[in-house]
Prior knowledge:
Blueprint: H1 6-17, H2 27-31, E1 38-45, E2 54-61, E3 65-74, E4 77-81, H3 87-100
Antiparallel strand pairs: 1-2, 2-3, 3-4
Amino acid sequence: MSEATPEDRETIKRCIEEGRVEFAGDIALFSAPDGPAEVSSVECWGKNKRNDGGFVVNWIKPGCGFGQLTFYLRDGKLRCQNETMGPQFCKEVMSALIDFTELEDQR
Length: 107
């Protein structure tokens, strides 16, 4: 991603002032200080034509945005569609998944 030029910034400012810009989602989430990832929901599914079942973890992260980690079984392997987020971020979301989960056997 390249840095916006002063001309680019003026064009964006003018478009906002003219009401020609809409934001999908919560803009405060992107402009907030960095914070820990949180899980907002989890959805599961069974075997279908594309894979042998799986689940999706919907996440939010202040200063970053929102997205999904989609885990599924195919050819006997657990796979993850990670929306270009790296392994460390995926681990952070999985840690947040444990916080989101009601553990039945607490120690």
